[in-house]
Amino acid sequence: MSFANTLITWQRQHGRHHLPWQENRDAYRVWVSEIMLQQTQVSTVIPYYRRFMARFPDVGALACAPPDEVLALWSGLGYYARARNLQRAAQLAMARHGAFPAAFGQLLALPGIGRSTAAAISVFCNGERRAILDGNVRRVLCRHFGIDGWPGEKPVENRLWALAESLLPETGLDSYTQGLMDLGAGPCARRADCARCPLTATCHARQQGSTATLPTPRPRTRLPERTTGFLVLRSTHGTLLEKRPPSGIWGGLWSLPELPPGCDPARACADGYPLVAGSVHVLPGFRHTFTHFRLHGEVIVAELAAPLPPADPDLQRWARHDDLCHLGLPAPIRTLLESLPC
Ligand code: SF4
User: Fold this and answer.
1) pLDDT means per 10 residues in the chain (342 residues)?
2) Is 34 part of the annotated catalytic residue set?
């Protein structure tokens, strides 16, 4: 049996058929799931997905929602550019099509939708014959066909796309595509469990004992380190939060005022704010790894003698403990604030 037919048979018997976004093949629902699943496991995504769908059941609801609410429901999933692009794409889809499209070309023209995501939606919702190549599929193909080289390198990626296209069956695209996803998230996950896989008889990595070394990992580079001081300014109105600029790290989220690196925290606070004497103290910091640097957050807590009126209510606000769950906050800032006594 061919690679595709083996996978189709296996998917129909052993694959996943009851994920929340499989309940109906609505392009909007599939799209949201595909974006949430980028870099994130299914078990983590499901509760986020259900909350998101309950609040934004269709593309129109997402398009006209307050951006803060979208970010709040995304908060904890990370990679916040995905949430911002999601809403921008919803607005563009409404303006261009009056609905969320399912055709590959229209999907590809929306922000945050790449070739593989557009292909997956068009297969499931428009019956198109297209290849997908997300991280899980790359792993399956590299192992099964013994492809060396980091899949992030263009020549390797091009080779994988050509291979993915050549493997497409004439029929059963839906089961085949879902089967690739299920295999990459199940038996052929990072730690391969080949005993559960339908492809063992033809798999290069299985036969060569190279499941642990394929796919070739990204060449190691040492991430640069950055240190930033985060100010927890507290008053009877709660903790002072500031809105981050719309793009860049934690773009559009609420975060804490920052201190310039290397400054003396007590002096910097005292210069900028009317503090209760002796209230400044430094807490153990936190570490957070981004794709391109490691952040060491220094945390300085201080009590304000009186709450300051926010300079601009769109960019500054006071937040009490109970408000935190309704706000879009970066995960480490949320963890920090929730760990502090009220
Ligand atoms: S046999 Fe093992 S390594 Fe090969 S595709 Fe299946 S799970 Fe992956």
Assistant:
1) 95 96 94 93 94 97 94 86 93 97 97 96 97 97 97 96 98 97 96 96 96 93 89 90 88 88 71 76 88 89 81 86 86 89 71
2) yes
Q: Which atom of ligand 1 is nearest to the CA of 197?
A: 6
Q: Check pocket membership of 184 for ligand 1, CB cut-off 6 A.
A: no
Residue 84 dihedral angles phi and psi, to the nearest 5° = -65, -45
Question: What is the DSSP code (8-state) at residue 16?
Answer: -
203: Cβ below 6 Å to ligand 1? yes
- Which H or E run contains 54? helix 42-55
Specify the pLDDT at position 13.
Answer: 97
**Which H or E run includes 259?**
strand 258-259
Residue type, 242: E
pTM above 0.85, yes or no: no
Angle at 81 between CA 330 and CA 44, to 5 degrees: 60
| CB 188 near ligand 1, within 6 Å | yes
- Residue 140 CB–ligand 1 contact under 6 Å: yes
Confirm or reject: Cβ of 233 under 6 Å from ligand 1: no
* pLDDT attached to residue 177: 98
- pLDDT the model gives residue 247: 82
Residue 64's pLDDT is what?
96
Q: What is the pLDDT of residue 190?
A: 93
Residues 6+ apart with CB under 8 A from 65: 55, 56, 87
Give the amino acid at 222: R
What residue's CA is closest to ligand 1, atom 2? 194
Helix, strand, coil shares, percent, the chain, to 5: 45, 15, 40
Among the options 23, 34, 153, 165, which is catalytic?
34
Dihedral of CA 113/45/100/116: which sign?
A: positive
Task: Tell me the best of 145, 196, 206 to mutate to test the pocket of ligand 1, counting ligand atoms within 8 Å of each CB and taking the most.
Answer: 206
Distance 147 CA to ligand 1 centre (A): 13
**CB distance 126 to 176 below 8 Å:** no
- Ligand 1, atom nearest to 200 Cα: 1
